[in-house]
Write a structure and sequence with these properties.
This protein has 621 residues and is α/β, with parallel strands linked by helices. It contains 20 helices and 22 strands.
Length: 621
């Protein structure tokens, strides 16, 4: 159905895929891409299969199978997920597809919630893949639709690369008339689907030969125009993605009428259009997140015209951009005016007007009040207190266990790596107890292979599975252990203990981390053994299940020892002045945040923290 809707960028991509006739959608949740698949699942369009996969590799491979049979398929992930999917993707581009296959790989400048700040456009160059780089939610919708047609025309996967501000911005998106659901035509057997060295050799030549035709096919997403109004200048701004919005805003703020080259399809690079853009200009500024991809494409064509961007430091090499950064670069490079340039290190990006409020303080991330991971970390910390131990972490909410006062994450690399890093550390540091913490979703994503490796190589590590019954970090998506599909329908629930034992782990224990004495004793028992052993700490994420009655402090009994705050770092705990004795500091519980996990009550030496009701409550909360 056509019409205008207020949509987030990720929602716009989902609607674009639906309106393009997509029939298969798979992915793995990862900010900033998650809402795209969730939107399709929420809308439940007839005839469309939607799946959360165990990881990005599995997601791409299942979608490729659907595309082999003629289905239009969408795969969603974030940029580091593309690393996981890179093995099948590289070969898939050589083999080709039958139905349209679009891979949404959302980049995260900043990075705001990622291990890396990598640029998917670089991967497109490396893999010889077409890539579309939307600058707004409206364009994300259009590109999502067009990407399927492009994929089918060239029988190739197409990358769609929005960045965080496009993914999470909202705009009025005009839906155009959808095409009917593209029904799979069926798989046709033949040697073309089997990759052999000779086939790869011929495919490589074919990929190179198709580039001029690809440039023409993507021409609608590359353009030259001018900003409206202002003073005419012989300055050009080459931009892509959200950088195009920043460039236009900067030109408007500075009162410039200048030439704009917008590259929405950077690979293959449109050299003829770029040369036309450069002709007659005195300077060019390249504005793009994250890497200087457009800048590097322009450089061989400049013919002496100065080119500014990331390479010469005119724009920062890392982090998000803004219109103020672009204004700064235009002034600092002499493109316009004589206004003193701002510092690229200025956290506010631009001078403040009198009366403007100060920048908000930096607030480090913290585990939620009542998070079961806090209890699990605390139990292991207590159990290992008098012994030499290394705590290997992984990707998820529990990475936040690295912060004081817990200090329980010594390593963190990538999804599933905690289990394998622990194995290497145990070899290199044999006097240490090596703990490998991994969440339930990450266990299914890429932890199982590490477990098997540990068993096979007779490692001596303690695997701690933090099972909170959801994928908490990205918004509580289901996974193979939750018993629910992406559509909210019942699904077989994989049992972590059964899988661990099937992989060869003979010693597996389960405990409720909120029963702190049981959790500590369970950890002691595991530490007294050798080989590969596992503890499964089972308690739901507070966003999935509320725990109980909020706690309250009997201020008259509180000794002011501060054990609860200093040991746990729970955001619901703080200090306040006692109403019973002036100048004495006592604990305080913010009942609006407290979930009643009772962890603070269990470690309080004076037993002054109890469920709310019937106590002398401190602070009136």
């Amino acid at each position: 159905m056509s019409g205008k809707l207020l949509l987030m960028g990720n929602e716009a991509i989902a609607y674009g895929a639906i309106d393009a006739g997509v029939s298969f959608v798979s992915g793995y949740p990862g900010t900033p891409s998650t809402e795209a698949l969730e939107t399709v699942a929420r809308l439940k369009p007839p005839g469309v299969r939607v799946e959360w996969s165990v990881n990005e590799k599995a997601a791409l491979e299942t979608a490729a199978g659907a595309a082999y049979a003629g289905a239009r398929a969408l795969v969603t992930m974030k940029q580091v997920g593309l690393n996981v999917a890179s093995d099948p993707l590289m070969s898939l581009n050589y083999v080709g597809v039958k139905g349209g296959l679009v891979i949404l790989s959302a980049d995260d400048p900043g990075p705001i919630s990622s291990q890396t700040e990598q640029d998917t456009r670089r991967f497109a160059l490396f893999a010889r893949l077409p890539v579309l780089d939307p600058s707004s939610p409206e364009e994300a919708y259009e590109m999502a639709r067009a990407a399927f047609e492009l994929s089918e025309r060239f029988r190739a996967p197409v990358l769609l690369r929005p960045t965080t501000r496009v993914c999470h911005a909202c705009a009025a998106v005009v839906r155009t008339e959808p095409v009917p659901l593209v029904q799979p035509s069926g798989f046709v057997k033949g040697g073309e689907w089997v990759i052999f060295p000779r086939l790869s050799f011929e495919a490589k030549k074919r990929l190179a030969a198709r580039e001029p035709e690809l440039i023409d096919a993507q021409a609608a997403f590359n353009s030259i125009d001018e900003t409206i109004g202002g003073t005419p200048v012989k300055i050009g701004i080459a931009c892509g993605g959200i950088g195009a919005a920043y460039a236009r805003e900067a030109a408007l703020n500075l009162g410039l009428r200048c030439r704009i080259l917008r590259i929405g399809a950077p690979n293959p690079f449109p050299e003829s259009l770029a040369a036309e853009f450069i002709d007659g200009l005195e300077r060019v500024l390249a504005v793009e997140e994250l890497d200087p991809v457009i800048e590097d494409g322009l450089r061989p064509l400049m013919n002496g015209v100065p080119l500014h961007g990331k390479r010469d430091g005119s724009l920062p090499s890392a982090g998000e951009l803004s219109a103020a950064f672009v204004e700064n670069a235009l002034m600092a490079t002499g493109c316009v005016g004589s206004k003193p340039p701002l510092s690229l290190n200025d956290a506010s990006h631009r001078p403040r007007d009198n009366g403007e409020p100060p920048a908000p303080p930096i607030r480090p991330p913290v585990l939620c009040a009542g998070c079961p991971h806090r209890a699990s970390f605390y139990a292991v910390k207590r159990a290992a207190k008098s012994r030499k131990a290394i705590f290997c972490g992984d990707i998820g909410c529990y990475t936040l266990g690295n912060a004081p006062p817990l200090d329980m994450v010594d390593t963190c690399l990538c999804m599933g790596a905690g289990v394998t890093i622990a194995q290497g550390l145990r070899f290199a540091d044999p006097d240490s107890y090596c703990f490998a913490f991994i969440g339930d979703s990450t266990f299914f994503h890429s932890g199982m292979t590490g477990v098997l490796n540990a068993v096979y190589n007779r490692s001596d590590i303690i695997i701690v599975v933090l099972d909170n019954r959801t994928t908490g970090m990205t918004g509580r998506q289901p996974h193979p252990g939750t018993g629910e599909s992406a559509l909210g329908e019942p699904a077989p629930a994989a049992n972590i203990e059964t899988i661990l034992r099937a992989l060869g782990v003979e010693s597996v224990r389960r405990a409720n981390p909120f029963d702190i004495e049981e959790a500590i004793e369970t950890t002691h028992e595991a530490m007294d053994e050798t080989g590969v052993r596992a503890i499964i700490f089972e308690a739901p994420c507070i966003a999935v299940a509320k725990l109980g009655i909020p706690m309250s402090v009997d201020a008259a009994r509180c000794a002011g020892c501060q054990v609860c705050v200093k040991a746990l770092g729970c955001p619901a705990l703080s200090f306040a002045t006692s109403p019973y004795q002036s100048g004495r500091i006592v604990a305080r519980v913010d009942e609006s945040m407290c979930t009643g996990c009772s962890l603070c009550s269990q470690i309080c030496p004076t037993e002054c923290i109890q469920p709310a009701g019937g106590t002398k409550e401190e602070g009136g909360s």
